[in-house]
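Tokens help. Consider this.
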Amino acid sequence: STAPSVDPAGRRIAFLRKTGDEEPAQLFVMPLDGGEAQRLTDLPLGALAPRWLPGGEAVLVWAPLYRDHPTPAATRAERDARKGAKVKARATEDRIYRYWDRWLTGGEVPHLFRVDAVTGEATDLLPNWTRFLDFEDAGSGYDVSPDGRQVAFHALAADPPYADLRFCVYTLDLAGGEPQPIDPE
């Protein structure tokens, strides 16, 4: 288990856990005074960096989805189709194709999900998002405003083929809308 996050009231802890060898980490919530952990997500490529919303009713997580299959169901179907592929070659026209020991050519891009802390219902807050977050620790560079209305995060400000490697801070209104760059230049 990794990435613990205590809820604002101090009663529950959200964390990530892998339940099998090939299973990606998923979001779990557990009471701090004991009891069993409840699995909240079943995201096809896993979850990253949980953060509670101020009221404690929901947890935000980043989850990678395939750029050309931008829903959890479509990503799950594509992931399953790729499992049987024997080809290991990688081809891209993008300037960014690898970061240390991790390939960036699979088409995974992070989406921010709001996960209900009781039901586990996950809502994609960035359904059209196609940009990379931080290459080092994806999902770590974000925070929720004290009133719970906005999220600020940093992401690559360029689109493929990434001629310019410039990062930008974005804000997202959690009531809806598109992320807005703070410094668009």
Summary: The first strand starts at residue 2 and ends at 6.
